[in-house]
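Ticket #4471: structure export looks truncated?
Reporter: QA, pipeline team
Priority: medium

Steps to reproduce: submit the single chain below to the structure queue and open the exported record.
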Amino acid sequence: MNRPIQRVSIAVIVIIVLLLGNATYVQVFRADALRNDPRNLRVLFDEYSRQRGMIVAADGTVLARSVPSGNRFKYQRQYPTNPNAFAPVTGFYSLRYGADRGLEAAEGAFLSGSDDRLFTQRFADMFSGRDPRGGNVVTTIDPRLQTTAFDALRNGQCDGVCRGAVVALEPATGKILAMVSTPSYDPNSLATQDFAAAERSWNELTDEDMPSRMTNRAIDELYPPGSTFKVVTTATGLAAGLSPNTRLTAAPTFPLPDSSASLPNNNGEACPGSTGGTVSLTQAFEYSCNTAFAQLVTEKLPGNPFDAFIGTAKKFGVGENPPGIPMHVASSTVGDLGDDKAALAQSSIGERSVRVTALQNAVIAATVANGGIRMRPYLVDKLQTADLRTVSTTTPSSVNRPISAEEADSIAEMMVKSEQQTYQSQSGIASKTGTTDPNRSGSAYAWYIAFAPSSNSRIAVAVVVENGNQGAESYGGVIAAPIGRAVLNAYTGGN
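Actual output as written to the record:
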């Protein structure tokens, strides 16, 4: 063989080897990524030829289903029940934009029928000649409570369209009873098989000049929790050996350590009910006195106060990404405190760099309500085949015990007193409000975390509102509390 032919042969062999290697890489190592890429329309065409599974509420109410479309795409995704209220839970499934957000994305493999756990069903469908079908996702959502929370938040006292979130949990199990975010959207507008209409809806929903409606503010957004974080600070003190009767400063301002600045109480006033310039920890919590909590973490904690404060926050779940949602959850944080006691003092009242999701704050309230035991929150109760055979069921599980039963009882009693100091207070509720410094919109973040009944609690709730209509004075007790109470009462039958 002459040399030119030999070189050509070697080049051809190398090209063939490279092509085989690339084909192997694509088919073996990149297969899942390419299949799940929302731009892969071949997958969508294939999936729209089969009946995608349903997403249902705890009582069987259908939140998402596939119905015959009567055109070349055999099925049309449909969201039949108050779609705007349930959109943060369901997300959407679109021929134009794929499975995006919510359970449509998180449980996409099971809903489409490609999950390995549905192999037996796929085999049976093929053998019987039946069209392939996806599995059903049964959620923990109480549809009546979800609707109540959505309506209460949407109609709240806001500057324009309300921006905020509500999360309700069952303390004893961790079930997510409601997860609401406003403003919201109608998933049907994106699920339409009219590409032009879907694109118009997408452009409207993603308009940068409008508040994001597809953001799930319950789990995607991080907010400074304000005084609601005093629950964690109080737990830190009790775990370190302080008592509800520990005396703390009632001064109107507290000089921040190693700083020329000071931290004030609300309106710069002394804490009510003081004796000799001090109040008990219970009184400080009841009246939400900032200066008392700043002194607690900087002067009253034995040992390393940073380790104690950060350690307690971690025990409550701050910094974790709960695995049972199963959607992505932003990680709450207390920030990097280093050895800065001024930062520690500010963090003790939920300011500085402390950031939490509404879900995290609901977990904190639920942990106190559950006698100090933190349950893992979960949204999916069970997975079923199309024939309603249960494939898997979520079993409630505890994560840890951040505080003892006695400490939880003490904090619960403080939260009952706090509720009684809140505007339009209601008996039988244990709560804590929070009002932060003004945000970019000029409003405070208004918070309310609570549980009811105050003993043997059945529900815990967290509410956050970004744009209360009273600007910097959009207090949690005025803006967020009515929303939280509406949810609590809808579940417990209270006032």
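Status: closed, not a bug. The export was complete when the record was re-opened. Leaving a note from the reviewer for reference: The domain at 226-381+397-492 is CATH 3.40.710.10 (Beta-lactamase).
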